[in-house]
Amino acid sequence: MNKTFDRYVSVVFLVLGVAIYIYSQTLTVSNVGIAIGPKALPSFLSVILIILSAVNLVVAIRSTTHDKKEEKLEYKKFLIILVSLVLYALLIEPLGYVITTFLFLLIGFQTMEKGKYLQSVIIAAAFAVGIYYFYVEVFLGVLPPLPF
């Protein structure tokens, strides 16, 4: 693990999390009877980002190992995840939450660890459908529906 890279990335994501949280508080509260308003999910996710960034920063700072041979950064995997994340954001409205989330997770799983295709498909499908069901049916939130 590259400790210097971890420190810089943690600070960037910490600042990004705080900015997203502040911006999400400016979103309007739903007044159409939906239990979860438009600011609930970005607020929740930004708090998670802040917590995880702070934990990673503390771990990187406390780390006392000085490995002469640090791991090589995997730029190809990073670019694949970044491009698929941009495509996810662009395609979520036309394709719907379930399809885009399933495809994003499948690409992410295969990028991080090739093989285990059936396991990746099952986990991606269960996560996409499960989150959609709980968010839309249980919490009465709104997510982009299936295109058909």
From TrEMBL:
Keyword tags: Membrane, Transmembrane, Transmembrane helix
Transmembrane segment boundaries: 40-59, 79-109, 121-143
One Pfam family hit: TctB
Keyword Transmembrane recorded: yes
Residue span(s) of domain DUF1468: 9-144
Signal peptide coordinates: none
Protein name, per record: Transporter
Taxonomic source organism: Anaerosporomusa subterranea
Lineage: Bacteria, Bacillati, Bacillota, Negativicutes, Acetonemataceae
